[in-house]
Amino acid sequence: MDQLLALKYFCKVAETGSFTSAAKSFSVPPSSISRRVSDLEASLGTNLLKRSTRVVKLSEIGEIYFSQVSDILLQLEQSNESVRLYQSTPMGQLKISSQVSFGEQVLFPLLEEFRTRYPEIILDISLSDALSSLSHDDVDVAIRGGYAPDERVHALRLMANDFVPVAAPSYLRASGTPEDGFQLRSHQGLFFRTPRGPSPWLYKQDDQWHDVSGHPAAISNNAQWLKELGLAGKGIMMTPKWFVDPFLKTGEFVELLNDSVLSVNQDPDFAIYLLYQKPRYLVPKVKVFVDFLVEKLMRNDPKVNMG
Amino acid sequence: MDQLLALKYFCKVAETGSFTSAAKSFSVPPSSISRRVSDLEASLGTNLLKRSTRVVKLSEIGEIYFSQVSDILLQLEQSNESVRLYQSTPMGQLKISSQVSFGEQVLFPLLEEFRTRYPEIILDISLSDALSSLSHDDVDVAIRGGYAPDERVHALRLMANDFVPVAAPSYLRASGTPEDGFQLRSHQGLFFRTPRGPSPWLYKQDDQWHDVSGHPAAISNNAQWLKELGLAGKGIMMTPKWFVDPFLKTGEFVELLNDSVLSVNQDPDFAIYLLYQKPRYLVPKVKVFVDFLVEKLMRNDPKVNMG
DNA sequence: TTTTAATTTTGCTTATTAGACAAAATTAGC
DNA sequence: GCTAATTTTGTCTAATAAGCAAAATTAAAA
Fold first, then answer.
1. Which of A1, A219, B88, B153 is the most buried if burial means most Cβ atoms within 10 Å?
2. For residue A2, what is the nearest residue in chain B, using CA coordinates?
3. Which residues of chain A have pLDDT under 50?
4. CATH homologous superfamily for A163-263?
């Protein structure tokens, strides 16, 4: 027996005092109302209603039951409604995982605007360079440099992760400024270690990739330390532009070989990706965050994503 | 969709963290659980659970929904339980309607014992000689002299309503004591008016009924006034024995023609009846009251009832 | 990384149950 | 007693939950 349906029918009969009018408000024949209420009474072993053809009144226990049940039905409806509200309004905790450097350099400056735009969303940011799986960790969205994973997650290409060689003016004064990709080989290099080893310097000429890595002056998975070494003039660093953007503006870093095609990776799909689970029903808080980042970051790099 | 079932399934999955164990506790295949929960999610447009083959976790909104719904289910179960308790325990208001004289003379003296025996029953007694229909008035049981009605009510023959002629000793001294039914015709009579007119005096001899009504000294539908007239020696009164029982004991009334078959009615089914509705599910408070009256009143008059 | 095993989901059939509609039964009011 | 509004019952159809087996998924072990 569909007990909830029976309860709804019963309450409507109790409210209207009539099976017929209850039937009308549910657009079902009166016989359906009659049977469902009878079923309910049978399941409780009680007469909830005192029927007579003209007047339907509640029995003593029916009165009590009605007052309780109508409240319960109301509560349930409110719960359902709050779920629908949650589905339609961006709210709740939004857990974001990001690479440390990207988080610090790019993400944080944007978040204050996001927070004022969606005050009902509580941000929970964790920065880590460990590649966390969305399914393992309890995050709603993750931002990672690399390739689009083939998991069942949405991978939205946020922005290019183009690496450019930079160096401090002091280094260039001491060691000279490379005029050509191949000249990089004779320079000191500050190398970032990925899980697949130190990133090489790659130079593309005539559709050919060449390894033009310099002498390693330092290797680390800590971008911050490498940046400090670079600022101190210890060598040339291949770095995403966004990572050293403020220093390029102040002149503390100088971008080298602007027109050359240099990279740390041959794959054109290498970029910053925004990853999020693809549930059957997308939660608004995730959607608005995704839209927000697209709006803020994909203006200058309008390459589209890859489903 | 049986939403209540879906909610129960969902809550059990949330509690156990597994579709399989939820399925076991309901003794249904896991596929049923899966489908009901999916239906529920579809109807809400939300993912309530984050599934992975090994672990089933609640989503943010699922967490909220679960805490609310599990409380709602608990409330509903408690309401159902209270109905079952009501069905198994005598409790609640018991509305009793009785004839005035019977109520005062017979019923009231018994009720104190009933009240102590069933303290959870709140008695609501209304005395009236108007014949009220059970369906019209809001009474659980009615006590009426007369015949078993052919309505759809239980009519339990509580006790005989045998009428006996009584008179005060002062009257008998003044007018003589009748020795024979037919002698009543020459006496003064105190007649009770029923809705069908004044009750005649009937005398049965050789399977023949004879009207032996005396001269009406007074007619009233108020038994109390007639009794006072009788006590004052104004005439002979045909009355139910229970109505004058205390006066017979003190000698203020004398019963006449003990061995004769006298009545106010030819119908042997004329008696005091306990009437109560016959619902599909009999409420305990009514049952125990019926049993109580049978126990107290049918000891001396063990005629059985008539369904 | 590959394999294994526990678990969830899907496909399809059967059984149950709610709905639809007509007819019968009931009863308040004329 | 009759009428009209209402509830209940009978019977068929449609919707839906259960049951079972097979496929898909994935965390943990090898």
1. B153
2. B2
3. 301-307
4. Periplasmic binding protein-like II (3.40.190.10)
